[in-house]
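User: Could you check the structure of this?
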Amino acid sequence: ETIDSTVLTRINALMSAADLAREQPAAKLKAILELNEVISQTLNIDELLPQILSSLMKFYPQADRSLMIMLDEDHQLFVHSSQHRDGSRQSIDFSRTVVNTAIEDKQAILSADASRDDRFSSSETIVDIMTRSVMCAPLLGAKREPFGTVQLETHSYDKAFSESDLQVLTSLTAIAAMAIESADIHEQLMEQQLVERELSFAREVQQGFLPSELPTIAGYGAWAFYEPAGHVGGDYYDLFTLPNDRIALVVADVSGKGVPAALLMAKVSSEVKVALTRYPDNLSKAPFEIN
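Assistant: Sure, the predicted structure tokens are below.
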């Protein structure tokens, strides 16, 4: 028996939650509650995405495979997570035609038989992986720009997805997108806090290379103020007392700023002290070349 390709429906992913909730409210509510419980358990992206797919596989028992396909910084598609009904580690090939259609049109799409769907007939991957029915919904961020898709597939005709399946998936994907974006923001904040702590520590270390107090010089007063433009800088100063009532004043302006400049400043500080200790009477012999 020949089964013709049928495009059952496509849903605008920009529709409001109220509009989406008018169809299958009981099913949506059950799925939303279950998904909310899953996404509330972690803010780690690498843990969250597989958990979302696991939840969807439970809600759609006819699904043979699910994919979380994301866009990287160069706007290239890659599979972040995948789930297979039989638990096997099968190929994670996917049709870029299907995914790009969902992303570019910002629409959730459903094909009753993707391998025969005219929209995707040029996609060899669809034929290769024997996808008979596919739902693909875009993940939209707060600015309504897509950053990936959720895709569910079946590999047999008698388990094809329905229009109501797609409507529920559209609602769930909207919730998943908010959770993923929140988790991403959380991870960025955590990384920023880590960098700030490391920079704060670097600043403390750098301050340790500067004199805590300046020596008293008869007939003179000495004071210093140091404030780097950023968390850490490379400028350096020090004041030393030498034999025969001599004073050595060192002021250095290291090119650049930040951690690299601070590291060079630490090297300068160390070599200056070594030079003044080894050559207090003839500083012209001091090896002061800093590379």
